[in-house]
Amino acid sequence: MKGSVKMETPPEGSSGGVAVAARSRGSIAFSSLSSRNFRFLLAGTLGSSFAMWMEQIGLGWLVQQLTNSPFQLGLVQFVRGFSILFVAPFAGVVADRMDRRVLAGVSSTVSSLCALTIGLLIVSGHIAIWELYFTAFFGGLASSVSNPTRQYLVFDSVTDKELPNAIALNSMVNNMARVVGPGIAGFIISYSISSVFFGEFLFFTAATMSLACLRFKRPPPRPREPVLQGIRLGAVYLFQHKTLLRLTMLQAIPSALVFPYLQMVPNVAKNYLHVGPSGYGWLQTGVGIGSLVSAFAVAMLSDVRHKGAIASVALLTYMTMILAFSFSRIYVLSLFCLIIAGLGLVIFSTFNQTLLQLNIEDEYRGRVLSLYTMVQGLNPFGGLLMGYIAQEYVGAPNAIAIFVCVAMVLAFTGGIASKDIRSL
Fold this sequence. Notes:
The protein is mostly helical. The protein is built from 17 helices and no strands.
């Protein structure tokens, strides 16, 4: 099978076994790159990830400059998540029916045009917070199509044996962008915030162009039920498979209650850690540094057993570090907490998604992946509530702490304590 590693037996009494094992482990780390389609897909994912992280940094700082409001930071992300939450199920049905390269290309193009629009509005001096609501809404629509479609394309691009490694490498390039993107964006913001959005436009355009290089055999046509019926069947399938449901819930809990801390980071950086855009960018980069290290380790160990138990420990580690970040008022300590949080986040998300992909029947893959993406759309809903509580009652750090504590309880009772998950 393509991407498999041939093990050689060293002569008796030699030390060659260690060298062969090391070479074999290194080969496993990049085995899925033997697929031409996956190489092009990975290059496009890198460009798309750079664009998304530049948007995350640029948009957060822009909203902070325009409003200085934690609530507005959450509200802009809420508008984006609202569109993701309600469009993602339809995107999954469409992804099961038509050319996924076209879907991914259209979504990347819409995202690039949203970025270009913001950049031009800033340059022209006509930027206002209400305009960001519109670009966030259309950007969310694009993401609701792009995320499940690109995950499906990973499955299309490699063999079943290579799939865990491909998911790990996909995660690794996402976090390469997370390491470099925020630092560059923070540096650019100190000179010109509009340049961040023009850079985002270029990266999304490159991601769209890479999709034209993908070559797949046309799959046999499938029976086409009505769209709403397709969504219903996908939901029924998910709820009938308790393991898939628990994996999806384990993604939903941090998405709704922990990930929203990202929208509060500009406020924490400015008002509690007393750093500017460059320091803010490095805080986001800190998560990426930890994520990149763990993503490479996961790629090398993509065939490890007990992924469910490892993912559970990693999720608790991630949430514990974000809780520690909320209490820190020392910049270096805050950066350290986010680095360790990044380690846990990537191990959890990579293994959780791998287990999901490996346990879905092909007929329902697009629909289940779209529902998995839909729960990620809960992030802005949590961000809106977190922003409101932060502004009206307890401040950004205490709001983060409250949400993380609730998430830890729910994650433990909702999946981590399950023997089914720990035994995967």
